[in-house]
Amino acid sequence: MENQPQNNMQQEIIESFAKKVNELDKRQSKIETLELESLPQQMKEMDKSINELRETKTLDFSNQLSQYGELLIGVKDQVTAIPKEIPVKTKIEFDTKAKFVIKVILGLSLAVVTLTGVVVALFVNVSHRADDENRYKVVKGFYPEVSHQVDSAYVVNKDSLLEQAEINIEHQKQVLEAEYQARQAEESSKTAKKQLNELRKQHKKR
User: Fold this and answer.
1) Residue 191 backbone phi and psi in degrees, to 5
2) CA 33, CA 81: separation in Å to the nearest integer?
3) What is the rounded CA–CA span in Å between residue 41 and residue 116?
């Protein structure tokens, strides 16, 4: 019966240390500044002291309790200093190969866009030429004399004929534009005269 209080106290101390050890096992961190390397040695000292406590038969635990208290304070300070969440800084960098691949992809994309533009331009040009050929076929079919004269002049002096043709085409455009503007001006003049006559009639009624 005399050993019962002693055994109970030993059991409480053992359970207290076991609880602290379990808390340490659940918290893990790789922060070097906290000097966590000293924890295993402290655990060994605590385990050694516990074993010595189990073997002792005296009721004077003041010395052991003082040592355990100091150890617990040190362990508690280190455990408290461990952050619950360790911030992780993520830095994404492309290596040289990745940069090269990206440049190749961008270059190919630009080449595809350029090639597409060239193909579209060629297609439009070919379409225009096909239209011109069809028009000339119409001229040959309905105006054979005119087409014969054009063919003969083209064989004799192609450059001068093309130059004069461009001049004539530009002149025809200017004439058509002038005629269109004249018609627009005539219509505007008629509208203005009509409005003027209506205003004069309204003025006479007053």
Assistant:
1) -65, -45
2) 10
3) 73
Alpha-helix residue ranges (DSSP H) falling in 56-95 = 62-81
pLDDT tens profile 13-22: 777 766 766 6
The pTM score is: 0.33
pLDDT digits over 176-189, tens only? Answer: 998 898 888 888 88
Cβ(50)–Cβ(17) below 8 Å: yes
Please provide the average confidence, as pLDDT, over all residues in the chain: 72
End-to-end CA distance of the chain: 136
Q: What is the mean pLDDT of residues 34-46?
A: 62
Inside any domain, residue 55:
yes
Cα gap 97→103, rounded to integer Å = 10
Continuous segment of H or E residues that includes residue 114: helix 96-142
Last residue of a domain, one of 56, 81, 106: 81
Picking from 16, 47, 81, the residue at the C-terminal end of a domain is 81
Is-contact 81 34, C-beta < 8 A? yes
